[in-house]
Write a structure and sequence with these properties.
By secondary structure, the chain is mainly α. Helices cover 50% and strands 8% of the residues. It has helices at 6-11, 15-31, 34-45, 49-55, 77-96, 125-130, 149-163, 173-179, 183-191, 193-200, 206-211, 263-274, 286-298, 330-336, 339-347, 361-377, 380-383, 387-391, 405-415, 420-430, 440-457, 468-482, 491-504, 511-522, 530-537, 539-550, and strands spanning 63-69, 103-109, 169-172, 215-217, 232-234, 239-244, 248-253, 259-261, 281-282, 308-309, 312-313, 354-355. Strands 1-2-3 form a three-stranded parallel sheet. It has a three-stranded antiparallel sheet with strand order 5-6-7, with no helix packed on it. Helix 5 (77-96) links the parallel strand 1 and strand 2 (103-109). It is elongated and about 95 Å long.
């Protein structure tokens, strides 16, 4: 699905394709001379990326995209968002180049960082307190399942990414430092120490400047990651000298995992050593990207292409903070919504701040379902810009769900359902061929609807009595529906009667009539298409509901 659409990808307007084109230009500029770049671009724009790769040796190396993870805590919504969005860019790049150019997505864990504080809600906090300041891959695992706390959280990260089907390569910072993969660039940083300091020191406060060093040595005695000044540098031996509070003046090599770097130089070193071509980051890291890019150039590297996405806000418009717990966790979203709806939410306007709260989930689910339905009828140029193309790497499901999530939520409430079996019983006439096996999306949505209704809709439901105009119209609607066959399952036929009643009773605007239906009959300010709801709920049951609402029997008064 990612081949033979190069020309469509070249003209696509959605942000993953804009980023993919930026990435392509970045890689061509990074690897080729001006004349070579011009020739390669002509070939690629003509849909001949395979010829470009065969012609220019420098293009045979894979294009590397990276995401980062701090394993002092568990994977969270931001982790998912960064990997999901980077994957969207990766797939757009593959489409842009006919899927001829190999790509790699690295999920990098900064697991050599020292443990700075004991996380809340973790077992055996006293044991963790004893291991403070040690690299996370040396800190003992409080859960008792892995060799270290870092290994435990790395395993959780990989299981997390695997559960969503992401394609990635996991790299551990500890393993890269200890294996010598970073040694060449670390020695270069030692040699260009003053140039790096000239970049970093102006960004620090006076007190921090006095002791700052890009190198964080690991104490040979305590195993702590030390933030201490570098007293001496020996470029020929590849070592630094520092004052170890546990053992006095100490000399260690900067290679082989005896030191790690402060995080901005570390980011720059990683870009250089791994030859990273693309990495996105949050808006809060704009300055960090700028400083790390300068360090990367000082080390002889080329900073990657990327962009800064906006951060999520809580329901009050405040920045989400893990310590405050004012956001939405992955487990919470997946209790109430599908993984695809979350990917849909991540796709939308990544450079705009958005609320990340429970109330966005139903809309995200229904928007995703509607775009699946639209995809099949769209022409190819529209399909490639449809969000579901990016969510499903060009191969979205042929069908989504026969009903909306909002309709299911209202059905749960009106039917007082507490299980999927009860909901499936209502679909027996409306969709007689449907089963959990041949409508798996609908079955999943039922489970989410039951959870969401119980936790959020039920506690806030508020029915009201109808006005005289509304009461008369409701009783009229009940009579009109009685005139239809009792086994009517055609939602459009029922909807036509609903429209006719609204017009006959002069509701202005007509949406005021539908608002009355929702508020009086469903206890909500908005709801699903009423004809479809009635067809599934059953005509006799709907008529009884309308009569009860008209007489004020649904209110608690």
């Amino acid at each position: 699905m990612l081949q033979n659409i190069e020309l469509l990808a070249r003209d696509a307007k959605s942000w993953p394709f804009e980023q993919a084109r930026n990435l392509l230009n970045h890689v061509l500029k990074k690897r080729l001379s001006d004349a070579e770049r011009e020739a390669a671009k002509l070939l690629i724009d003509a849909g001949k990326a395979d010829e470009a790769l065969a012609t220019f040796e420098a293009l045979k190396r894979p294009v590397i995209l990276e995401t980062g993870y701090g394993p002092s805590g568990l994977p969270h919504m931001g982790t998912f968002g960064e990997v999901a969005r980077t994957t969207m860019v990766r797939n757009a790049f593959r489409a842009l180049t006919g899927d001829h150019w190999r790509t790699r997505l690295i999920a990098f864990s900064d697991d050599m960082d020292g443990l700075r504080k004991v996380p809340e809600g973790i077992p055996n906090p006293d044991m963790l307190a004893e291991d403070l300041h040690k690299p996370l891959t040396v800190v003992r695992d409080p859960f008792g399942t892995h060799d270290s706390f870092g290994a435990h959280n790395n395993a959780r990260l990989r299981a997390f990414l695997d559960s969503f089907g992401f394609e990635y390569e996991f790299l551990s910072s500890t393993e890269q430092y200890r294996s010598g993969r970073f040694d060449e660039v670390l020695l270069r940083l030692l040699e260009r120490f003053d140039a790096v300091q000239a970049i970093m020191l102006p960004t620090l406060g006076e007190e921090r400047r006095a002791t700052y060093s890009p190198f964080l040595p690991i104490s040979p005695i305590t195993g702590h990651v030390l933030q201490v000044p570098t007293l001496e540098r020996n470029v020929e031996r590849g070592t630094i000298v520092f004052d170890d509070t546990a053992g006095g003046r100490t000399e260690v090599p900067v290679t082989g995992g005896h030191v790690k770097l402060q995080w901005k130089p570390d980011w720059a070193m990683r870009w250089t050593a791994l030859d990273v071509d693309y990495e996105m980051s949050g808006k809060d890291l704009i300055e960090s990207v700028r400083e790390s890019s300068k360090v990367c150039r000082a080390l002889g590297g080329v900073p990657p292409e990327g962009f800064n996405y906006e951060l999520f806000l809580d329901i009050e418009g405040k920045k989400i903070s893990k310590s405050k717990g004012n956001g939405l966790t992955m487990d919470e979203w997946l209790r109430y919504g599908t993984p695809e709806s979350l990917s849909w939410y991540m796709f939308q306007s990544p450079k705009s701040a958005k609320s990340l709260h429970f109330n966005v989930i139903p809309r995200a689910i229904d928007d995703y379902l509607s775009f699946i339905d639209q995809f099949q009828a769209q022409e190819p140029a529209k399909r490639i810009d449809n969000a579901v193309w990016s969510i499903h790497a060009g191969n979205p499901p042929k069908v989504a769900s026969p009903v909306s999530f909002s309709l299911l939520l209202n059905l749960v409430g009106v039917a007082n359902a507490s299980s999927k079996d009860q909901l499936w019983a209502y679909f027996a006439k409306y969709l007689p061929e449907a089963t959990p096996e041949n409508e798996p999306t609908l079955d999943r949505l039922m489970g989410h609807a039951l959870n969401y209704y119980e936790d959020f809709v039920k506690p806030t439901k508020s029915y009201r009595r109808p006005t005289e105009q509304e009461k008369t119209a409701l009783l009229d609607l009940a009579e009109r529906l009685k005139a239809l066959p009792a086994d009517t399952t055609d939602g459009e036929t029922i909807q036509n009667e609903v429209y006719a009643v609204g017009k006959a009773h002069a509701f202005e605007p007509l949406r005021a009539w539908f608002g009355a239906l929702y508020e009086v009959l469903l206890g909500a300010s908005q709801g699903p298409r009423f004809g479809s709801f009635a067809a599934i709920y059953g005509l006799p049951q709907t008529i009884s509901l309308i009569e009860a609402g008209a007489n004020g029997a649904l209110t608690k008064e």
